Amino acid sequence: MSANLCKKGNHSDHEENIQHEIRIILIGKTGLGKSSLGNSICGSREKNVPFKAAASSSSVTQTSECAYRDYNGCKLCVIDTAGFCDTKQLNEIVIAQLKKGFQLASPGPHAFLIIVNGRCTDEHIGILALLQKIFGKQALKHCIIVITRENALRNDDDDQLSDAELIDRYFNEAPQSLLDLVTNIQKRCILIENRAEYEIREQKITHLVDMIKTIEKENGYYTNQMFIEAEMQWKQWEKDEIERQELDREKRKENLRKQIRQENRSREEALQQEEQMYEELRHEEECLKREIRKSALGNLILGYQKFKTGAGAGSVTRECESSSIVFNNRNITVIDTPGWFDTKLSNEDISKALTDSYYEAAPGPHAFLIVTAGRYTTEAEDTLIFLERLFGSSVVDYCIVVITHEDDLRDDDKTLDEYLGDSTSQLRCFVNKCGGRCTAVNSKTKDSDERKTKLTELLGCIDNIFRKKQTSYYTHELFERAAQDEAEQRQKEEERVRREWGEEEIRTEIFQWFAGE
C-alpha cells in the first residue's frame, strides 16, 4: 500500500503529476474529533500531524485548512473546517469558513464527511440540515456520516456486533426527521475510532475511500454551479423569512395599535401632526441629497462624462462603477458608489455595494472621499458612522471631505477655512473627525485648468495620508479585522434582542409613538 503524508499547502501546489484527486471536506461540531479524523485520513501518527487537535470546548480549528496524501495511486485532498458550538445559532464567521473550505476543494469536493460521536441526537440532524442549508440538497448526495466514538454505540453485550450491525441499529433508532434527510445519502455511514491502532484506522480509511469512489462514480463531484444555486436558494429563504417575521411583527404591532387607539382617540390629531412633521423633514433631507453631486465629482476627476448624473430626490447610481485615467504619470482609479441613504436601496444593498467597491479597488483604496454639498447634515455624520461600521474605526485615517459647491464659497467671497467656521461649528467638527482633511471643488466646472489644479490638490491630500500613516492604502488586513468585528457585534446584538425583546416592550414602543415621547 502506498500512502505518503503530504504537508499543508494550496490546491494549486499539488495539481501537477496527479493521476487522480479525491477532495474531502470535514464538517462537525467542536470536540467530536473532526481534526483528529483528518489526521487519520492523512495517515498521520502521533507526531507531525497536519491538523491541530485537542480536547476543548472551543474550536481548535479557527480557519479552514487543507492537507494532502498520496494514497494507492490517487491524491487525497483533506479540508478541515472550523468547528461550531451550536447548529441553531451559527455566526457568520463559521459559515464563511465552511464556504472557504469549499473554495479550497476547487473545482469541488467529492465528499462531505459529517462527524458525529455516537447515538443519533438532534445535533446530528442539525448538522445535516445545516449542510443542506448552506450547500443545498445536492450536497446530501455526497455525504458520509462518520462516527468517531465507536464505544458510544456499543452496549455492554455488544462486543460481537460488527460495524454494519452497529450502523443498522444507529439508523433504526434514529428519528424520522433524520431518516428523511438521509434518504438522499442512502444511509452511508462508517465507524472510525480515532484512538484505535494505526493499522485498524488504515483499514477503515481504505473502506472510506472506496465509499467516496462509489459516490464519485454515481454522482461525480459537488460542483461550483450547485453551490451557486444553493446560495441563491438560501438568500431567497433568508429574505422570505425576514419578510415573514417582519409581517408577523407588524401584525402584532397593528393589533396593539388598535387597542391603544380605542383607549386614546384624543391623540389622533397629535399623531397626524407628527406624521406631517416627519414628511416635511424627509422632504428637506431629500432636497439636500439632490445637490451633493457625488457622481459629478467622479467625472471631474476623470475629465470626462463616465458616471451618470442628474437631478432628483433619489440616487442616480444604483451599483458600483469604476474608471481609470493617467494624470501626471500616476494611475488614478475612481469608483462611484450608490447614494448611501437613498430610500430605494436597503442598508444591506448599500453594504454589499460598498464591499464590492472595496474589492474593485484591490489591493486597497488610498482614500475614501466623503462628498457633501457643504451644509452640515446628520446624513454626513451617519455616512461616517456607516463607514466605520463597515470598514472599522481606522477608516477615518483615509477619509477626505470634499465639498462640491465651491462656487457657493466664491459667491459669498469666503475662503474654505472661513466657510468651515470656528472650532465649535458642526461642519468643522465633522472635518476634524476626518483628520482635518478637506478640499472644495466646483464639480460642474468646464475649465480644464481649474480641473487640473483641483485634482492636484486632492492628490496632495492623499499623499499627506501616506506621509502620516506610513502606509499608502487601506489594507485587506484592516478590512478583514473590521468584517470580523462587525460580525461579532451583530451576533451579540441579535442575541441581546432575542433575549430582551418581548410583547411588553412592543407595547411600550407603540405607546410612546402615540404619546409623542
UniProtKB/TrEMBL annotation:
Taxonomic lineage: Eukaryota, Metazoa, Spiralia, Gnathifera, Rotifera
Pfam families found in the cross-reference section: AIG1
Coiled-coil ranges per UniProt: 239-291
UniProt keyword annotations, A-Z: Coiled coil, GTP-binding, Nucleotide-binding
Protein name: AIG1-type G domain-containing protein
Domain AIG1-type G residues, every copy: 19-231, 279-483
PROSITE patterns assigned to the protein according to its UniProt record, in alphabetical order: G_AIG1
GO molecular function, one term: GTP binding
UniProt keyword Coiled coil present: yes
Family statement: Belongs to the TRAFAC class TrmE-Era-EngA-EngB-Septin-like GTPase superfamily. AIG1/Toc34/Toc159-like paraseptin GTPase family. IAN subfamily.
Family annotation (SUPFAM superfamilies): P-loop containing nucleoside triphosphate hydrolases
